[in-house]
User: What shape does this take?
Amino acid sequence: MKVLFVNACMRGEKSRTLILCRDYLQKLKEKHPEAVMEEVDLNQLEFELQTGDVLEYRDALRHADDFDNEMFDLAKQLIAADHVVVGAPYWDLSFPAALKNYLERCSVDKLTFVYNEHGVPVGQCRAEALTYITTSGGFIGDLNFGFDYIKGLCGVLFGIQKFYFASAEGLDIVGADIDAKLEEAGAKLEEIVREI
Ligand SMILES: Cc1cc2nc3c(=O)[nH]c(=O)nc-3n(C[C@H](O)[C@H](O)[C@H](O)COP(=O)(O)O)c2cc1C
Assistant: This one.
């Protein structure tokens, strides 16, 4: 079992979201000791935004079925994962831009998805499930655009079937019991691990 952790916790070790992610990954490893854990740390990754020039170059490679270029490495890694964990704080009603940039890199016609004869995309990801972990300053409620987008893209286009969500919310409200909220989210993550 290959577990891919997409780490969009931009505050690094100060991130409360990262605390939840590490907790989840540890529990997952305890349940599946054979699991190989991989991490993509979006704080460390450096690649240019998908500008017109980058796209043109990428399309030329794609049309030539030449997927050896390193610009396709992230997509290949995502396709090969058996379980995907995305950790991202709730920023501006969704998630940090670095995660969108990563997803643009991964979203490659002929790699992450192919079109069938009816023009319908068929996802190529091996993973059955993706777990999305977040924390927020206030309350997310119905404005869960980050998770909703992930479900849309990774479900419709990449072929991942099942989505789990855990959050610790209201962390920036004055007087909030942050430890208790993180613990509560940890209990939810434990439930998710039981299903994986
Ligand atoms: C750039 C930025 C945007 C944010 N946008 C929101 C927001 O739209 N709604 C909200 O409730 N909290 C927002 N917050 C607060 C964070 O969601 C909250 O502090 C979260 O716990 C940060 O996660 P971290 O500790 O993992 O970095 C924002 C924080 C930052 C830095």
